[in-house]
Amino acid sequence: MEKVVSKVGSFWISKKAKQEFSNITHDLSSLSNSVEDKAKCLINKLKGKNEKGLSDILREHNVPGGIFPSNIKCYELDEAKGKLTVHLPYPSCEVCFKDSSTVRYASRVKCTLSRGKLTVLDGMKTKVVLVWVKVNSVGVETRKSDKVWFATSGVNTSRPREAYDMPRQAIRVEDF
């Protein structure tokens, strides 16, 4: 009986130890990502990159300048590839726009920026009929178009462009 109790106890301790190591590994990984993001922002500032504001860059590409919040930490743009990474101030945050729509952001949003659209989006969600859905792309048909299209899994919704013209302050939320 003692051997069985000993084996069960040792199994339980081993399982708990693996769980704790997994938690520690996850914590170290997220800390490393946070430090990496802040270091990239600092290096870009020291190099003099990102002289233009993000909203100006978006407008140059015919994307409404208020798609991202006004209180971003920094952004990185690889102009040759069109890769845009936006670093936000919170682990997850959201913005309520003038048309009563809400967009939620992860701490880092990655996408491809091209004329009139953001594609291959990662880190952005919007609420569609009480359900949060991942945004795959955001686009404007023409320079004079008065609609912004949010493409999500299976649903495309159009919203008034004027609601997204000016960046708004993001607020912290619990879950992305």
UniProtKB/TrEMBL annotation:
Instruction: State a single Pfam family of this protein.
Output: DUF538
Record-linked PANTHER family: OS03G0210500 PROTEIN, T31J12.3 PROTEIN-RELATED
The name under which this protein is listed is DUF538 family protein
Taxonomic lineage is:
Eukaryota, Viridiplantae, Streptophyta, Embryophyta, Tracheophyta
